């Protein structure tokens, strides 16, 4: 399954902390878009889709949440609970983000501009496309 937890250096000094994600250092793609999710109801799941073309880095820069990753064959659950760990997700992975703490801010860095046509929002359709 093509995902990876990337633990990155904290550039810290007595002023505080600074975290960098940069192409070819700890980010494997050209960055085209960022968005962030916050104020999420802890009982809901977000995402619940796969992307045909987009790669992502997900970073919980405050609070914590869980991510279920599914490649059509196996599933994996990852917890994001600090600002220096990014979850890399390749194309064509079904993902669901859930169990958001009230203070969670989930930063998402994407390799593409937003295009609703590259989303697969139906799980059966995802299984069909990914398993051929
Ligand atoms: P949605 O895909 O449901 O968010 P998530 O998958 O994270 O739960 O998107 C919510 C709304 O935001 C929807 O109206 C589309 C819009 N949106 C954009 O306009 N641009 C974006 O880059 C994203 C991720 C969403």
Task: Name the features.
about 130 residues; 1 helix; 12 strands; about 5% helix; 5-stranded antiparallel β-sheet; binds thymidine-5'-diphosphate
Q: Describe it for me?
A:
- This protein is globular.
- The model has no long low-confidence stretch (mean pLDDT 97).
- It is 7% helix and 45% strand.
- It contains one helix and twelve strands, in the order ββββββββββββα.
- By secondary structure, it is mainly β.
- Bound molecules: thymidine-5'-diphosphate.
- The site of thymidine-5'-diphosphate has 7 residues, from strand 4 and strand 5.
- The class by helix and strand makeup works out as mainly beta
Count of alpha and pi helical runs = 1
Number of strands: 12
The gyration radius over C-alpha positions equals 15 Å
Give the helix proportion (percent range).
under 10%
Largest sheet: 5 strands, antiparallel
Low-confidence stretches: none
Proportion of residues in β-strands: over 45%
What order do the helices and strands follow? EEEEEEEEEEEEH
Mean pLDDT: 97
- Ligand identities: thymidine-5'-diphosphate
Q: Judging from the principal axes of the Cα atoms, what is the shape?
A: globular
Strand order of the largest sheet: 1-9-6-11-4
Distance between the termini: 16 Å
Give the structure's gist in a few sentences.
This protein has 132 residues and is mainly beta. It has one helix and twelve strands. The structure holds thymidine-5'-diphosphate.
Write the layout of secondary structure elements.
Blueprint: E1 3-7, E2 11-13, E3 16-18, E4 33-38, E5 46-51, E6 56-62, E7 65-70, E8 75-80, E9 85-89, E10 94-98, E11 105-110, E12 119-120, H1 123-131
Antiparallel strand pairs: 1-9, 2-3, 4-11, 5-10, 5-12, 6-9, 6-11, 7-8, 7-10
Thymidine-5'-diphosphate binds at residues 33, 35, 37, 46-47, 49, 114.
